[in-house]
Amino acid sequence: MNDDRVALYVDDWRVWQHAARLSPSMIGERCRLIDRFAAESDCQPAHADATDIVVWLHSHDDWGDSTMATYQSYLGAWFKWLQLTDRRPDNPMIKVGTARYPDREPRPVTDADIPRLMATRMWRSTRVMIYLALLAGLRVHEIAKVRGEDIDMSARVIWVKGKGRKLRSIPLHPILTEIASTMPEKGWWFPMRGHPAMHVHSKSVSDVVGRTMRRAGVKGTPHSLRHWYATTLLDDGADLRVVQELMRHKSIQSTVVYTKVPDARRKQAVDRLDPMRAAWSPTNRRVEVPIGT
Hints:
The chain is mainly α. The protein folds into 2 domains: about 5-95, Orthogonal Bundle (DNA polymerase, domain 1), CATH 1.10.150; about 115-265, hpI Integrase, Chain A (Orthogonal Bundle). The protein has 14 helices and 5 strands. It has helices at about 10-20, 25-40, 50-60, 65-85, 95, 115-120, 125-135, 140-145, 175-180, 200-215, 220-235, 240-245, 250-260, 265-270; strands at about 150, 155-160, 165-170, 190, 195-200. The strands form 2 sheets. Strands 1-2-3 form a 3-stranded antiparallel β-sheet, with no helix packed on it. Strand 4 (about 190) and strand 5 form a beta hairpin. The N and C termini lie far apart (about 85 Å).
């Protein structure tokens, strides 16, 4: 095999990322992209210049805008590491530039979908997974790792280690409090079949919940349940800052992506606009203003 088809330093980068405590899924995706770059291009990724990168990216016009932006961020991390560790003197991604992520519209499941989903026949473990997404906003990989030790019944919170390995507490909804009282106090809530010392994979959670949603005729993905959690919190009057805390987002801009403002609230907001509000102020005399001539 041509040496250019085998990406240099990828194994070293993988170890470096593990030491930085990045998630295994993120590390795997990044390294696979560099291996793919090596397999599909005529150059060694560690030695690629800006033109090599642009030509390779251009060959993938089948990638959507979001995918392209994500992959360019992976390449940026790769070349930044090569430069940081003195494996090359420059970072060609500075010349390539950074692709912008497209604006994303929140896609929560609808209120009408929830009763239909919960009325569908499913395993009890699947029902618990769905409630953890709906009422605690957990991601699928967080659901997979829930343990009895994560539940504090006296404080009525569940402790969750999310992105960046940050440990945060989330108030337990009454339904989840009731569920927790019936689940194991120690060990995984969702152990791997045949391997009770291990938890199920996040893909297993995504697959089983996704299949249940499709069987119920509910559009969306398991992550859409988390969207519903954020959107409904906001619609029920929670402050956006509170929603950010409950979603465990570092930036409030991330929270905005998840929160769809209902059309009824937007209409009400517009209907309340009064162009003559200053004229009705107690300090001003009421003035009749003609609508037209």
